[in-house]
Write a structure and sequence with these properties.
The chain is an alpha/beta fold. Helix content is about 45%, strand content about 15%. The chain is globular, with a radius of gyration of 19 Å.
């Protein structure tokens, strides 16, 4: 596996993970998978990978999530870094889902852990997971098959989802926004707003921004190219900027946070959003969000 040199991850965490993880099992899984076939199965050849995703290193792995190594190691690493227990933290998102949604979209679904938990919690719902990495989608499909669950997996850019507006009751994003630059985050939230039905709910589980600000060394612990910008912002402001209302956040232990909000009903729009009548571009200028190229040059 190719990794960048001299990062904190490489010097300290990589040796620790080497001890904690089942290296023979990971190497066997990697060697036994036809990754070319996996990519061909899931890759939408018409998709243009955004430059922020294509040209960055995540978790000290070259090519980031466009690498089979990332797909193989993601689950065992995540199990250790989400404290105190990954399943407990992810379950907090499930517990905050209102009612019994019929259609659920999981943005940046990765290897499908959150998507699978959503399907198991709401078995009658149609769950769709979308991700930019065909390798992660391959792993997600494998996990769903092992759990005997039917989930729709889609290779795509969550900034521009090729689905009709107002078609999902619930949209989730777990561990996504600390890995996107601010302008991309805002575009994703706009797209989520478009896709949600009026009265629909968005739930976001991610790294705790207050903790990251209070303990800056955590920002250097992993190779996350956009973690500093994420830590300096506030997810509730970003949601309000996108048009969401009834926004709440709660800490999940000390390292994670869960935020949920809703797309207003027509009768709520004029009374609950301070941005009524302000275009998305004007909203961005109010917050002075930095720009970032969405597509490679």
């Amino acid at each position: 596996m190719t990794k960048s040199k001299d990062s904190i991850f490489e010097r300290f965490l990589a040796p620790l993970f080497h001890i904690l993880l089942d290296q023979p099992e990971l190497q066997s899984r990697y060697a036994q998978t036809d990754w070319t076939a996996a990519r061909e199965r899931w890759e939408d050849l018409s998709l243009v990978y955004p430059s922020y995703y294509q040209n960055q290193t995540y978790h000290s792995i070259a090519q980031g999530y466009l690498s089979p190594e990332a797909a193989v190691t993601y689950d065992p690493i995540t199990e250790w870094v989400i404290v105190p227990h990954e399943a407990w933290v992810r379950q907090s998102l499930i517990d905050r889902v209102q009612g019994w949604p019929r259609r659920i979209l999981d943005l940046g679904c990765g290897t499908g852990t959150q998507s699978l938990m959503l399907k198991q919690a709401f078995p009658s719902a149609q769950v769709t997971g979308i991700d930019l990495s065909p390798y992660m989608l391959f792993m997600a499909e494998h996990k769903a098959q092992q759990a005997h669950q039917i989930i729709t997996w889609k290779h795509g850019d969550v900034q521009h989802v090729s689905l009709e507006a107002n078609c999902f009751d619930v949209i989730t994003a777990a561990l996504l926004f600390h890995e996107t630059p601010p302008s991309v985050t805002q575009q994703i939230l706009r797209e989520a707003f478009r896709l949600l039905t009026p009265g629909g709910q968005i739930l976001i589980l991610d790294a705790n921004q207050e903790t990251l600000r209070g303990l800056p060394w955590l920002q250097d612990l992993f190779e996350e190219p956009y973690i500093e910008a994420y830590a300096s912002g506030w997810i509730e402001d970003w949601l309000e900027l996108a048009g969401f209302v009834t926004i709440s956040t709660e800490n999940q232990w000390w390292a994670s946070q869960l935020t949920w909000a809703m797309k207003p009903l027509p009768s709520q729009s004029r009374t609950q959003s301070v941005f009524v009548g302000i275009s998305p571009d004007e909203r961005e200028r109010l917050y002075d969000l930095p720009s970032y190229p969405l597509n490679p040059a």
